[in-house]
Amino acid sequence: MTIIMSPRGARLKRMRGVRVGVKLWRAVNMALRDAMREDERVIVLGQDVGRPGGPFGLTRGLRDEFGPGRVRDTPIAEAALVGCGVGAAMLGLRPVVEVMYLDFLTLGSDQLVNQAAKHRFFNLDRPSLPLVIHTLYGGRANFGAQHSQSLEAWLCHVPGLKVAFPSTPQDAYEVLRAAISDEDPVVVINSIALLREVGEFDLPRRRTNQIGRARLVQRGDQATVVAYGPAVALCQAAIGELGMRADLIDLKWLNPWDKELILDSLRRSGRLLVVHDAVEPGGWGAEIVARITAEGFWFLDAAPLRVGARPSPIPVARKDWQQILPNLDDIKTGLLELVGT
Prior knowledge:
This protein has helices at 24-38, 62-66, 78-90, 109-116, 119-122, 152-156, 169-181, 231-242, 259-269, 284-296, 318-321, 328-340; strands spanning 2-5, 11-14, 19-23, 42-46, 71-73, 94-99, 132-137, 162-164, 186-191, 198-202, 215-218, 223-227, 246-250, 253-255, 272-279, 305-309. The chain folds into 2 domains: 21-205, Rossmann fold (3-Layer(aba) Sandwich); 215-340, Rossmann fold, CATH 3.40.50.920. Helices cover 34% and strands 23% of the residues. The strands form 4 sheets. It has a 7-stranded mixed sheet, sandwiched between helices. A 5-stranded mixed sheet has the order 11-13-12-15-16, with helices on both faces. Strand 1 and strand 2 (11-14) form a beta hairpin. By secondary structure, the chain is of the alpha/beta class. It is globular and about 60 Å long.
């Protein structure tokens, strides 16, 4: 039996079949800690990741265990921060760069898009660039227009970048471990609104997640519902309130994404609904619908539908952003329209 120390020092017994309730932020912390223990090349860079314990506690305790050489606080300069991560990866380290909000990644996008993503193309003799950008989506957490944008479709549009957006503690752990182990640049997005949500965590299953594989949350034959991030729990609630039988697929990985699982589900259901917090026009759901329609046209019994955010900046007040981001009524309306056709 192995004793695992949690970020707060709680003792968790690791035995076969043990499942515990873990908050998502703690799963991220555990993933970083385990990766750093297993590979001394793994380092963490970012604003306040050292002594303060990182944004929302994600790096709590890491500086104490691994020292300031491997857990480095940086200035508020995302272009320099991402550039340092790219250089460190080029020199053989495996950096995890913490960019506090997904919105702020725009400031480091030149280094990410024009350097990191192109490295394999330009360097056939040394193609590896094991860089992880870990960042946070602030929607549904009252952070306002400049901290709440869901910009994953921008990143998915760049050849050479892998992108993930998990929704549960187990997947947050496994996705981050997979990203750190990968030889290409990976952007991992977590939702601030989900950081304190408790989910079942299988201690013996502390392993990496297969890149590009989605998770089938529940099974049904009336519709195929595809979501990721905070939209997954909303979709599950909507399906439950309607008493509907639907496959719910948590995409987890956005690029590459699990086309085969969706097509397999569509063969049984004949109907597709894609839900995400990103603005609906031009969102990643449009690519999913386009690709599935092209390759699974003969499985469809109705036109696929999308539910996304209305094209507006996200306000601070809950009563206001609830009118912009997808809500239960929006998803239930979409499901009823889909099944009724």
